Amino acid sequence: MQNLIRRTFALALFIIAFSLLWASNRQGLLLPATDRHISIPDELTVPLQLRATYNESMIHFQYRWPAERPHVIHDALRFENGEWVRYGETSAEPELYGLHEDRVAMMVDDGSVPEFGRYGGFITIGSRLDGFTDGLTTEDVEAHPYFGKVRGQDAATKYLPATRTDPADWGAVQPEERLAQLRKAGYFIDLWHWRSNRGGPIGVADDQVVAESRDGDDGSSAWFTNWDSEKKQPKFMFDPAKAGYASLTWDDVLNGTFPLDSIHHLHVDTMLPFDPNYAWKEDDTLPRRALRNPLGSRADIHATKKWDNGYWTVTMSRALDTGNPLDDKAFHVGGNYAIAVSMHRNATGRRWHYVSLPIALGLGRAAEMQAVPFTGVTPQWEHNWHEVTLFYPGQVNWPLLTSKAHAGAERITLGVPVKSYHNPDQLAHYGVEIEYADEILAQWRLTLIVGLLLFFAIGFTLLRNLNNYKK
Asked: What domain range is 215 assigned to?
């Protein structure tokens, strides 16, 4: 009877262990979890080519990266059953209808933010930012006495660590007097931001800055929202005399079948005030973003673009010194700078992008990447590309990297650059691990329990057989 009980006990352990193995093996870990703002791209790394050139007054950066198709409309208004309906809101997954613009952005520093040259854009990613699983809500941000009440923000955006009394706390902002001191000392990141819809069609990029938050430079942006909330209709339509039509068609917008050199943007040169009495048809579609000429420091960057044979090529150009020292980093011959690039494609937005590690840029000075001088007005672009690997960063943030939870935190304290011990492939997989940290930990615990059950079951069986053999 005792032998039967022992055999039954051993068999039960085996059955429980294998059942757990089977159940966990069938689940899979890396499934989309849009309710937690998690969506892992099919490709964790993407190649990008970069080069720079300058003359006595201007500097030009050129970027080239693969894109299966160009996405040049950010969101849209579709005429349905007598009403205008919005499409294209940002989600964790690629936008369902492809209504999210392609983008490339570049952060620039002149050494005033020394951590940036060693760790790149990671230093701008604080805790609980917009799009994170535990991100602050719109209500949280709007209730903040400075960001919500004074600045009118509705989302938690990038920031630099020294702009907080506690770098791990998005809301612990320094007093405004201290923020002004930091900005005057050059403690900010210059952000160049090209968007295929919100600026691209009129040849401009958005000049932005990262300090206590990510914001536009002084002045006004190149776009506004084409929507009259009181009348529940667009504010503007295409001018048929200039565009050849009053609206786009939904099928063309959905499939991207309109020619890229056709008029598909609303601007003072292409639009008229919206006429509700026009003979609107089902599926007529208008851009929800209309363009205007940017003003002030925010208008400093000009841009050209071309999509051809599965690749975007974008050039951003700006004066070496814009005369806006509180918004822009000035370039000088003989200077050394740190830059980092990010890119959105495949109708993704917010944090679902690819980023680079920091790149050292030299103007007439030895560096990882050289900006090549030219004479005349127009760059010739005859020099070689600098090859860059962009990677998906996940929800890795600066408070995490500098905490005890990160094995490399001591190296960061010592100022060891990230490139000396990590490469883009490793960081991409690390980003995925952070996204699914809870699931991975749960799976580890389950595997440990299964292993212990198998160990006891096998050990118990062997021990009983050994005792029987001795007898």
From this structure: 41-67+102-222+293-407
Read off the CATH number of the domain in which 334 is found: 2.60.40
Tell me whether residue 254 is in a domain: no
User: Residue 180: pLDDT above 50?
Assistant: yes
Residues 304 and 393 placed together within one structural domain of the fold: yes
Measured CA to CA, the distance from residue 147 to residue 149 in angstroms comes to 6
- Do 21 and 137 fall into the same domain? no
State how far the Cα of 441 lies from the Cα of 84, in Å rounded to an integer.
47
Structural domain includes residue 369: yes
pLDDT for 402-421, tens place per residue? 999 999 999 999 999 999 99
Establish if 427 belongs to a structural domain: no
Output the CA–CA distances (angstroms, integers) from residue 201 to 35, 162, 295, 342, in the order listed.
Answer: 34, 37, 17, 20
Domain shared by 364 and 386, yes or no:
yes
Q: What is the pLDDT of residue 437?
A: 73
| Residue that terminates a domain, selected from 407, 428, 454 | 407
Q: How far apart are CA 421 and CA 414, in angstroms?
A: 13
- Considering only residues 91 and 336, tell me which one the structure prediction assigns the higher pLDDT: 336
Does 297 lie in the same domain as 194?
yes
SS3 string, the chain, reads CHHHHHHHHHHHHHHHHHHHHHHHHHHCCCCCEHHHCECCCCCCEEEEEEEEEECCCEEEEEEEEECCCCCCCCCEEEEECCEEEEECCCCCCCCCCCCCCCEEEEEEECCCCHHHHHHHHHHHCCCCCCCCCCCCCHHHHHCCCCCCCCCCCCCCCCCCHHHECCCCCCCCECCHHHHHHHHHCCCCEEEEEEECCCCHHHCECEEEEECCCEEECCEECCEEECCECCCCECCEEECHHHHCCCCEEHHHHHHCCCCCCCCCCECCCCEEECCCCCCCCCCEEEECEEECCCEEHHHCCEEEEEEECCEEEEEEEEECCCCCCCCCCCCCCCCEEEEEEEEECCCCCCCCCEECCCEEEEECCCCCEEEEECCCCCCCCCCCCEEEEEECCCCCCHHHHCCCCCCCHHHHHCCCCHHHCCCHHHHHHHHHHHHCHHHHHHHHHHHHHHHHHHHHHHHHHHHHHHHHHHC
Residue 76 lies inside a defined structural domain of this protein: no
C-alpha span between 326 and 188 (Å, rounded): 8
* Domain identity same for 451 and 390: no
This prediction's pTM: 0.90
Provide the domain count of the chain: 2
